[in-house]
Amino acid sequence: MTTINWGILGAGNISGQFAHDLVLNNSEKKEIVHIIASIGCSSTTKGESFIKDNMISKENNGGIAAVVQNYDDFYKNKDIDVVYIGTPHIFHKEQVLKCLENGLHVLCEKPMNINAKESRELQEAAKKNNLFLMEAVWTRFLPIVNDIRHKVFDQILIGDVYRLMVDFSYDAKLETCPPGSRIRDKNLGAGALLDIGIYCITYARLFLDQKLGKEHTPFDLKSMVTVDPKDEVDYNTSILMKYSTGKQAILTCTNYIDTPMPFARLEGTKGYIELFAENPARLRSYKVHLKAGESYEVKDDSEYLGFIYEADAVAKDIKAGKTENAVMPFDETLLVMDTMDQVRSDNGFSYPMD
């Protein structure tokens, strides 16, 4: 049995989802025990509510009572092996650096940063300190996603793949959303591209290319970004990708509507695959339609929200002394960050931090 001690930085919604999967894993007595040692946040009351709301107890936490700490004490906590950072991306650079400087491995929520320049600084810091650092692109670790990749790349189920269409949209109710929220505030890195467009690009990387990072198959990029005149961020972005192999991706994201289902379709010469989910980041089912006449559906009915799979991968890597993950190497983070930088640059859209 392997035990890993987590510190969770940030007591918001995404951190709660991450904690849910760790608690469920421990309750089911799996091979890896994920102990939540500490919650780092600005408010003790908020941290205590986080522990209560996510039902973190000694019984499902390896006999350990999770503590709430302010940021400074959190970074210096020697009981923590690895930190999950679930704060808005505007804070990631400083928080990742603080963790690395204090000898803590890091799993940082996507996007890693506002731009690729910041990400490269973090990569160098992780190398300097010989510590593990990974962007939490949890979609890459979902068993159902890798099942599709196996069918597409290994079994050639739908023949030669030539096109992928992905739409990740959700109604952010902008008219009632406070101007200072992370959804609307440019100073907090608001906008559709960094928040949800990154998943569209991730699916194009997953299903159109088997290679990663520096070894990726080259692609050309065209994009359109509509910048809101009042908030000065993108709520509507479209991207076209064309790989040197001829494969194409049509990627769209917006904060004006909820994505109609299926949210994606992968097309090949022998058929196509449709993707379904309440949250497109967390694929729940897919339908295969073959030209030969066969059609069937595959569902993932797991109680896990989906974060346990990346958590397990991180735990195994750290225990093995690795500083990068083979499924989500840091060069892949840089490739996607560079891609989003290009989209913004081509459309004259920048953040104050650029």
Could you describe the 3D structure shown?
By secondary structure, the protein is an alpha/beta fold. It folds into two domains: 158 residues, 3-Layer(aba) Sandwich (Rossmann fold), CATH 3.40.50.720; 158 residues, Dihydrodipicolinate Reductase, domain 2, CATH 3.30.360.10. 32% of the residues lie in helices and 25% in strands. It contains nine helices and 14 strands. The strands form two sheets. Strands 8-9-10-7-11-12-13-14 form an eight-stranded mixed sheet, with helices on one face. Strands 3-2-1-4-5-6 form a six-stranded parallel sheet, with helices on both faces. Helix 4 packs parallel to helix 5 and helix 5 packs antiparallel against helix 9.
Topology at a glance:
Elements: E1 2-9, H1 13-27, E2 32-40, H2 44-53, E3 67-69, H3 71-75, E4 82-85, H4 92-101, E5 105-109, H5 116-129, E6 133-136, H6 143-154, E7 161-169, H7 192-208, E8 219-227, E9 234-243, E10 248-254, E11 264-268, E12 271-276, E13 285-290, E14 295-299, H8 308-319, H9 330-346
Parallel strand pairs: 1-2, 1-4, 2-3, 4-5, 5-6, 7-10
Antiparallel strand pairs: 7-11, 8-9, 9-10, 11-12, 12-13, 13-14
Helix pairs in contact: 4-5, 5-9
